[in-house]
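User: Please work through this fold.
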Amino acid sequence: MTTSYLPPISWWHKWIEEGMPPLDDNVPFCKRHGLNRCCIDSPNGQLTLTVPVSRPGTTDTDSRLKVSDLLVSEHGDWRHKHWHALESTYFNSPFFEYYQDDFRPVFEQQFEHFTDLNTALINVCADLLDTKQLQALLPHHRPMYGKNYYQVFAHKHGFLPDLSIFDLLMNMGPESVLYL
């Protein structure tokens, strides 16, 4: 498995199920795989956030480029826009107030390499999920993955499956690990 920007719930489920192996970023980057995108819930339905990336020495991407080579571009003030989207969307969710101070510093920091950004976000999520404790419980754990969980805007547009882990954490808090 390779890193991904605030990966979807299915990514986390698979990673935990496989015993949380080291992530391999020495794989080709393909725009279609969406490794630099995440989907969140919003008042208007699913919203996709994309981290602008570039390869060393140029501003465009190449399909032969490896994920480990990708650089984070500061094009379009994406860090501020992403944090604002996350904050305005999840401000009224049950756990945003508790977790915002864990995530905000990552969005305030400038990362040169895309994998460093992803690693920082995955580490925050793994700490909040307490994945080490979950791994010890795996033989006895029965995940709820696939069932609906509480989402702030479900009353407007229904349940949106397989969003970013950020959605699950903000809505379910410590119980998120049970869902995975």
